[in-house]
Amino acid sequence: MNAFSAEDLQRLARHGLVLFGGRLIHQAQPPVTDEQLAEVERRVGRPLPPALVRLWRVAYGGVLDYDLRVDYQGHIHPYSLRELFYPGSDGYNDLWGWLEHEQEWARQIAEEEGREWDGRLDFLPIGGFEYLERLYVCVEPGDYFGRVYAWSQGLPPAWAMRLHEDAFARVADDLEGLFAQLAYERDPLAEDADGSGLELLEALIPLEEGDAADQALAERVKACLGALVLDWQAALDTGSIAARPDLQRLALERAVEADDTALLERLEASGVELGQLIRGGVNGPVFARLLKRDAVQAWFAARGIAERQREDAQ
């Protein structure tokens, strides 16, 4: 999605759409000013990583509408990365609110360790979803400076296939690396689409109602969004799915959801490991039991593929 001219980017920006790392941000806020950058650095107590500055020079906050999964030590978690925080945003907290939250935690940890907090943060929260997910950039100087980390809040045990303890994991070496992972697990352009991407398509409507150049640009953007679909079906058809664990997991999920034993047989013939963990720390047989998919449950049992799950998924 990088093959857009300066004029294209200007047209998109007029409708609150900006491009960073090959992905669109909608409801994009104006670029950060030097004064605003200095204020963030003052509150953090450290210089900011170059990739974060590059992002904020494009948009100092906004909304993302993609799918992302985070691997928390084998627990594959569908991660909600919706907000890019900024001062005055109307989410659960704005950027300043989350900074104050981190400062309070840092102060509390220092007290528990019997030392005085030096007023500097090691991690800067830059995005997430309400109070459940937060995305951090490491601002501590050293080998991890600029690396990106995800945090998710654990939910009560009654929530099957969800994290039951707070989790934290590195997800990318920098923000461009993170944005490169943003994709679609279901085609947002499909007639029956009901997942991520629909808000972004809605944001394109003013372009579609514009002049001929706007309309052509909207079509090009939609084609780029379609190219971000994780197409497990094509990989299965071409025989390449055995080299793509992410597509294997999606295909297994779809087979269980649809109670589709024929698809399971195709996956088996393609060399897919049918007992692997797929989502939420469980494998296909557990997922089938939870969804009450009798046909695939029986299919797994007939082949001796036992239930397997992480303790934190029970």
From TrEMBL:
InterPro entries: Knr4/Smi1-like_dom, Knr4/Smi1-like_sf
Origin: domain of life: Bacteria
Annotated Knr4/Smi1-like domain residues: 31-181
Name by which UniProt lists this protein: Knr4/Smi1-like domain-containing protein
